[in-house]
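Quick one: structure for this chain?
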Amino acid sequence: MTRDSQRSSSCDVPPEPAARVSLPALRRNIQALRARLPKDAAFAAVVKSDGYGHGAGDISRAAVAEGSRFLAVSSLAEALALRQEEVAGDILIVAPIFPDEAPQAVAGGFALCVGNVETVRILNAAAEAQGRNARVHLNIDTGMGRFGFLPEDPGFGEALDQILNMRNIDLEGVATHLAEADVPYSGFTVRQVRVFRLVLREIQARGVRPRWIHAANSGGVVHFPAIAAFSLARIGISMYGACPGPAPDEGWRLEPVMSFTCRVVDLRNVPAGAPVSYGRTFITRRASRLALLPAGYGDGYPRSASGRAAVVVRGRRVPVVGRVTMNLTVVDATDVEGVRVGDPVLLFGQLGKDLLRVEDLANWAGALPHEILCNVGQAVPRTVVSS
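Got it. Here's what it folds into:
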């Protein structure tokens, strides 16, 4: 990965597929999202999977500078990687860890989301052996169905009592995860929050008031801030510029943080009736000028977008034609005046005045923006723009 403190222009577009990550855009997105939260609510920046492909180290440092209370990761390995990059900031591991990782997780001072008594017991033993406390956030499964304590379980109250009696456990948080908060006016989300509030009352009735209460993910921040923000909100995909579900207000937009580009590597004129790419899924209907792009699914550009997607060349959206292959994609540039080899191509993101949102590519591909960003970030070089 390279870094560049200068703003990129079309002249800076590398010939091969490359991703440009804008930290100023990230900061502005964080500011826009925080404006939706109550003034006393903190936020956790979700930087798992290498910051959704953007580079966890750079993203984390920028998020901490914007006031992120926690950096949320998915595993102990990700937490340790941030420390190896000398990233400051408190780290919350939001997915389960393995039992044999407990001593290292406790020694690292990481906060951990836990979903069963046995894990808490293992953490308590590890913490006792080290003469310290383990930092625990209870994960309550109110409808996500992945992991966590089930509040309807007859043994839930007893489990709470056991945890509260463990001497080396610091119960600093209670969390849940909203399953469809990207759907505005979701009745299921309202139900999840209601169940979560009942659990909080049950905990508080035992004389315990954890500092960090968190339910809102990106969808919760965008669509349900009034009921789901609590004292902490976890912002993931929205921080990177993709809005979960429809924009909440007219004109409200997040900025793309990652832009994926390449250059036209070849041009050819073909007659009507010419097949394009594997399987001959596209046949030209007119004499056409086809542009070849040196990007494909091996570079993170989704094959499932074949025949559906568009890219931007010289300010015009042009269609992807035929099947996307491992390292090459064909687009129909017949209507692009003056197109030539070496012209910059915007696959998604922003390049100068051109904008093509990753949400659009995800829709064409039948995927999630999360998938697109992670796949690209893992496959091609990144340039990080810091100012």
